[in-house]
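User: I'm putting together a teaching handout on how sequence relates to shape, and I'd like one worked example. Could you take DUF2155 domain-containing protein from Lutimaribacter pacificus, show the sequence you're using, and then write out its predicted structure as tokens right after it?

Assistant: Happy to. First the sequence, then the structure tokens directly below it.
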Amino acid sequence: MRGLLLAGLLLGASAGWAETVSRGNGAVLRVLDKLTGDLQDVELADGDAAPMGRLQVELAECRYPEGNPSGDAYAFVTVRDTTGEPVFSGWMIASSPALNALDHPRYDVWVIRCKTS
């Protein structure tokens, strides 16, 4: 199913479909500790990193539909474990967190929205 969704997105882009986007200056990310059930929202500026439990989360950039900052945000995120090795690096999409998700036994991380101020 994931392959079909990605193929559809690529096909749409190759057929001339493109949405105009704006770049935020940061993002709000949500972290779920699956063992304790704790949720934590963290605001990161573009280029910043923050520890979240046993992970280090880095935000490269966040984008959103032009003129709609509360719209479907997508952010380029790198997540590292305690050894410093990346366990995830890629675009996370607010409306489809399972499309490109962090696969970690203890934590879930997803983007909520971009920051614009």
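A couple of points you could highlight for students: Residues 2-14 form the longest helix (13 residues). Residues 1-16 have pLDDT under 50 and may be disordered.
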